[in-house]
Structures are given as structure tokens and as C-alpha cells.
Amino acid sequence: MKTAKKNGLATAAVLGAILMAGSAVAPAMADDASRGGEDVQGQQGSDSKGQGGQGETSKHVLLLSVDGLHQKDLDLYVQNHPTSALASLVNHGTSYTHAQTPVPSDSFPGMVGQLTGGNPGTTGVYYDDTFNRALLPAGTTDCKNTAPGAEVAFTEAADRNQNALDAGQGLAGLPASILNMTGQPGALLDPATLPVDPATCKPVYPHQYLKVNTVFEVAKSAGLTTAWSDKHPAYEILNGPSGKGLDDLFTPEINSIAPAPFNGDWTKDNAATQQYDGYKVQAVLNEIDGKDHSGTKTAAVPGIFGMNFQAVSTAQKLPTSDGLTGGYLQGGTVPGPLLSKALDFVNASVGKFESALAASGHAKDTTVILSAKHGQSPMDASTLTRVPDSAIIDGLNATWKSAHPGSADLVAFSTDDDIMQLWLSDHSQAAAQFAKDYLAAHPAAGNDINGAAKTVTTSGLSKVYAGSEVANYFGTQTSDARYPDILGIAQTGVVYTGGKAKIAEHGGASADDRDVPLVVSGANDEHARTVTTAVETTQIAPTILKTLGLDPNKLQAVQIEGTKTLPQR
User: Fold this and answer.
1) Signal peptide: which range, if any (predicted)?
2) Mean of pLDDT values over 327-332
3) What is the DSSP letter of 61?
């Protein structure tokens, strides 16, 4: 749902001296100071493998990601709806009230983090649309004579048909027939859109790009069934490097064209987004009922399964939809009418899951985990500044070429939402410093929530990392082919967009981007517990495995980063 700005993708100046595989890295840290706190229940001791907790086991884990949801949102909803399904999860589970997502707080690294236990420096996944200095551009056939440097677009752009809800499978009767979509959507990716591995001269599929294994692969090796539902076929990355982690992956394309009466894709109208999410809800209900996602084939209830919701995210981003105002009321704390409606939809869906688990007898052997891939920023619309980043990049390129006559554009590729990531045609530290100095020295023109002109200092950035500073930030080596040459942390309220259709975005390092709920509710949780110790959503992955009685250390990212299970679990 982001637009990447591309400049000279095949420029010969981009040189790659690295293999696709990366080195061991440490967790990425937020630019913000950690929100400390105390575990009101007291930290549990660790077992012999360093994974602490109570050791409760279940046969099934249902993971729900409500994209855009903040901890503040959940707190207020439960307060105002004490008998709701969301309140039931909180009242019969452990709430981690200081949980944070990885940086960048994008859907792709956020979901990958929850299901691998790793941050971007470990997983190699920095965003859904990035650049790799070692791979070759999509469509390359002369791999010996093509300069390295390629866009890696694991978005709707990789679909065979990004305008179709089934991504090009060719189902009749869409959208009503969408549950008949294949459970192996990797087959719906167009190999001509994928970057090429210079060693094999073959396209690189998302699961091949991931550096570490997933909880699904560990579960499969233990004989469990696995399933997931998400928003693009490129989420086949969750299969893990084996390509076989998921038995059933349902990925209707959210950026396809929605049918009348809607205009545009399923994100442009919140009612459309709710309808879209409803298909995934039904898929999960079918799986709880002992069927595959389509509901037509008998299947074991998955050991690990779940879905992501998009309705809250679009209700936060759209200025208006369905006659309702999007985002939050003045002050940025209380959800406005559109967002309130979206929260009610999610709550009703969670209620359906709870009822289905009870009816099937699985409420007693299923643990439900509720979190979010990312938050959304800004919550307070009065702080919004929309900044067209194209002017910033054009200015940087012009200044670079003026100082280096005959040179190509400095920016080979960029992905900017409420974070700025630039991949440069010159990978030297000197070039990165040049870009950093330019960004720090130039203001940028933008507009506020009402569309009035507004100027921001230092290109709208509060901090800029360049070259080796970026590698250090992500805990990776400078030889890593994947990390951006420039990482810019946006000022509060800054969203990089050329239009006025958004009032919020995600991807950045602010509290609004990263402070998400994390609730673990098991069959034996009779009361609410609150843990205020700072945790990361990457800790969900080892916690899932421990809950199933499996070894969290089977996860490669857990071994690399030392990711712990969540305390009190």
C-alpha cells in the first residue's frame, strides 16, 4: 500500500560485492528511548534453554494482527466496551502494555518478525519494496554481463494480475468465489517481476529471500498443520526458506480493483476493506471448523494459524469514508467515527472466532495472540505534515550531479512513508555522507491536515543515518547487500506523500508507529495479567513454539538474536 520512488534501477554504478545471505545481527532498536516499566507479576525464572515463562501448552495458536492498532486504542476500547470480545481476551490473558514492533514499522518486516523472532538485520527483510545491491533486475537473462543492483518488490506488483482479487488465478464469480483461491499463492507470482539471482540466473521468490526459518517450518517438522491469511500472494515469504512452511495460505489481493459500488482498490473505502477482511475471517472460521480455508475440504485444525486485519489501518489513513471522518478526534486519543466503526468490526470478528472455538471444543486447547504488524502515525492530526519526497530526491540528485559532472542520479531507489530509506548508486561512505549533509541542510515544502502550505526543516527528518551508521543501526555488517544507504527518521507528524489522500502512515520509529498491543490469552488464563516490562513483537515467535510444546531455539533468528519468549508465558 506504499509507493516506492524508483530512479535508475539498472544503473551500472550500483555495484554488489555481496551474496544474498547475510551475517548474524542484533535486534534493531528504536530511535525513541525504551519505554521502561516493571512486570507487576514479577519476572519468571528461565529454564535451562533461557526461555522463561509458565510453560503452559496448547494444541493450537491463533495469531491475529490488527494492523494499525495501538495499545492506547485497545485500552480505550476495553474500557468503553467491558463485555466485548476484545475485553474478553484481555480479561483472560496476559497484556504486554509496552510492546514495540521492529523498525521499519512496515507490514512486511513486522509480520516476518512476529513469525521468525528476528529484526530486519537478521531476516534481511527491511520493507516490502526495497533494493538489493547484489541481485540483478527482474527479467535479466544475460546474468554474466548485467551489472548488479535490483528492486525487490514483494508487493501487489509481483502478482500475475494485480487488478484481480485472486491475483490472476482466473476464478469465475469474483469476489463471491474468492474462498476458492489457491492455498499455494506462490504460483500466482509473476517470475518476470522478481529479481534475479546472479549465481543461478533464476528469479528469487519471497520465501527464498528470507534469511531465517519461520514458526511454520518448525511446526511442520513436528507434524503440525499450518495456515495463514494475508493481503498479497508475496506473503508466501512466510513459508520460510524451505518454501514448505504453510499447508494453506490464503492471500486475496487487497490492492486489486474492488467491485461496484466501490471505486479503486479495497483500501480506498473502509466498507470495502471490511468486506475484504471478512473473506479472511471466514477462512479462519473454516479452519477452526476442521476444513481448509475454502471450507470445501476436510483438514486438521492448524497448530498455528491466523490472519491480519486491514480495516483499522485504512480507517486511520483515510480522511473520510462512507460519510464518516477518519482518524482520531482532536487531541489524537479518541477514535473518530470511521475508526470506531472499524474497531467494532474487528471486535465482532474476534467474537466470531471465540464462538467458533467454543462450539468446536477448541476453546480449551487454543491460545489466542492479538497484536499488530505496525501502528500508524500521527494519531494527532494537528501534527500532520504531508511532504512530497520527490522534490527532495530531485534536489539531492541535482546537487550530486552538479558536484560530480557526468554522474548518474545518486538515488537509485527509495521507499518513503513516515520513514526515509534511500539506496544510492554510489555505495561509498562519502556518497552517503553527501546525501546526509544535503538532507540536513535543506527544508522541505509540505501541507497540513487542511492542505495549507507548511515548511519543515531538515527535509522533515529528526535524525539521519548514513552508510555504516545504517548498518550499525540495524546490527548488520557493511557488506550486507540489503540495507539502505540512508535511513531517515521522520519528524513527528511527517508523512512522505505527493497527495492529500492520507492523514497517517506507518514505517517509522515513532511511538505512534511502534506501540502496539500484545495480548496472549490461553485456556488456563482465568484472570487478566499485565506486564509492563518493555517487550518486542519478535518475541511472539518463540512464545508460539513454547506454547505448542516445541523448542523456541529451533528458530534461527532466536539463536542469532537471543530472542526470549514473552515473560509470564
Assistant:
1) 1-26
2) 97
3) E
Question: Is 263 exposed, middle or buried (CB count within 10 Å of its CB: 0-12, 13-18, 19+)?
Answer: exposed
Note whether 248 and 183 are within 8 A (CB).
yes
Q: Rounded distance, CA 549 to CA 309, Å?
A: 28
Closest CA to 84 of 361, 336, 350, 285: 350
How crowded is residue 453: how many other Cβ atoms within 10 Å of its Cβ? Answer: 8
Cα 67 to Cα 312: distance, rounded to the nearest angstrom:
7
Residues contacting residue 295 through CB under 8 Å, at least 6 positions apart:
179, 282, 286, 289
Domain count, the chain: 1
138 is a domain residue: no
Does some domain include residue 248?
A: no
Rounded to two decimals, what is the model's pTM?
Answer: 0.91
> pLDDT, tens digit, for every residue of 265-303?
999 999 999 999 999 999 999 999 999 999 999 999 999
Write out the DSSP string of 285-344.
HHHHTTB-TTSSSB-PPPSEEEEEE-HHHHHHH-SEETTEE-SB-TTSSSB-HHHHHHHH
CB 189 within 8 A of CB 55: no
Cβ-proximal residues to 298 (8 Å cutoff; 6+ apart), any chain: 290, 291, 292
Confidence of residue 566 (pLDDT cuts 50, 70, 90): very high
Q: What is the DSSP letter of 5?
A: E
202's CB contacts (< 8 A; 6+ apart) are 196
Do strands 366-371 and 60-66 pair parallel, antiparallel, or not at all (unpaired)?
A: parallel
Count of residues making up the chain: 569
Written as nine digits, the cell of 125 is 527483510
Answer whether residue 113 is part of any domain: no
- Does residue 120 form part of some domain? no
Residue in the block written with cell 548498518: 471
Tell me the residue ranges of DSSP E strands in 39-118.
Answer: 60-66, 94-96, 99-100
Domain carrying residue 18:
4-31+382-496
pLDDT number for residue 56: 65
Phi, then psi, of 349 in degrees rounded to 5: -65, -45
Q: What are phi and psi of 287, to 5 degrees?
A: -70, -40
Q: Which among 151, 68, 103, 152 has a CA at the least distance from the CA of 507?
A: 103
The rounded radius of gyration (Å) of the Cα atoms in the chain is 22
Q: Do strands 385-387 and 494-496 pair parallel, antiparallel, or not at all (unpaired)?
A: parallel
CB count within 10 Å of CB 75 equals: 14
Q: Over range 239-246, report the average pLDDT.
A: 99
Q: Measured between alpha carbons, how far is 524 from 115 in angstroms, rounded to an integer?
A: 23
Q: Which residues contact 128 (CB under 8 A, 6 or more apart)?
A: 2, 106, 107, 108, 153, 154, 155, 232, 234
